[in-house]
């Protein structure tokens, strides 16, 4: 395989697994996942699989990134909040689709590394914060879209409060670490509308800054 063919590996998988949104597919083509995986697993960056990153965390499986991004339904004028920066990969995809992305992680060192990557890639519409994302980012609220890439027991109240009317939140919820349900929550004039997308497996949303 040439390096270019290698980079295409998971992009084929996305299409065959039913990802249809052209903007999402384009964004995933534009962001090189190899820039977000370092060390032992770098050689596997283009496989459709989650991989370990620093601080005992994981970069999500590309298919799951695509499905979550599709469900989030991001428009070019949207202000998006992501909880769980991790490697920065999901934020970089969102930055291609939205006006502005705010991303938070409780691991200071992950935020620092991700910020460096955004600078290198010229992604100037991402703002980072090292903080416990369960409380959201009140100074920047409200948001058109909110995505959590760590699993919560329920959609956190402060985050729902920071979602605009008509806004959408995508969040893995569940009591167990083994399997959770990916939920799409929409704030409608009649209240919150919940839709289950599929089973997923994420690291848990934890308290406090480390
Ligand atoms: N979106 C990432 C993958 C995230 S892994 C990517 O594209 O690579 C989940 C991340 O959520 C971890 O980095 C973990 O530190 C973070 N996290 C867990 N609980 C959190 C909290 N309360 N606030 C902010 N980040 C949290």
Task: Give me a quick take on this structure.
By secondary structure, the protein is an alpha/beta fold. It has 6 helices and 9 strands.
Main attributes?
210 residues, seven-stranded mixed β-sheet, 27% strand, 29% helix, 6 helices, binds S-adenosyl-L-homocysteine, alpha/beta
Q: How would you describe the overall organization of this protein?
A:
The chain has 210 residues and is of the alpha/beta class. The protein has a single domain (3-200), classed as Vaccinia Virus protein VP39 (Rossmann fold). It has 6 helices and 9 strands; from the N terminus they run H-H-E-E-H-E-H-E-H-E-E-H-E-E-E. The protein has helices spanning 3-16, 22-30, 62-72, 89-97, 108-120, 157-161, and strands at residues 51-52, 58-59, 79-83, 100-105, 126-130, 143-148, 163-173, 180-188, 191-200. Strands 5-4-3-6-7-8-9 form a 7-stranded mixed beta sheet. The protein has a two-stranded antiparallel sheet with strand order 1-2. Helix 2 (22-30) crosses helix 4. The longest helix has 14 residues, at 3-16. The protein is globular. The structure holds S-adenosyl-L-homocysteine.
């Amino acid at each position: 395989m040439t390096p270019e063919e290698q980079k295409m590996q998971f992009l084929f998988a996305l299409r065959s697994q039913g990802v249809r949104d052209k903007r999402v597919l384009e964004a995933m083509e534009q962001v090189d996942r190899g820039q977000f995986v370092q060390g032992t697993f770098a050689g596997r960056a283009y496989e459709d699989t989650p991989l370990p990153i620093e601080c005992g965390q994981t970069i999500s499986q590309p298919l799951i990134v695509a499905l979550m991004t599709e469900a989030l339904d991001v428009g070019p004028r949207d202000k998006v909040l992501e909880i769980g920066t991790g490697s920065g990969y999901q934020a970089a995809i969102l930055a291609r689709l939205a006006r502005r992305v705010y991303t938070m992680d409780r691991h200071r060192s992950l935020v620092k590394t991700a910020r460096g990557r955004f600078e290198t890639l010229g992604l100037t519409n991402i703002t980072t914060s090292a903080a416990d994302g369960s409380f959201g980012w009140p100074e920047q609220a409200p948001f058109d879209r909110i995505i959590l890439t760590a699993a919560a027991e329920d959609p956190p109240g402060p985050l729902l409060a920071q979602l605009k009317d008509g806004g959408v939140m995508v969040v893995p919820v569940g009591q167990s670490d083994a399997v959770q349900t990916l939920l799409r929550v929409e704030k409608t004039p009649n209240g919150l509308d919940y839709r289950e997308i599929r089973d997923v497996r994420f690291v848990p949303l934890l308290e406090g800054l480390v």
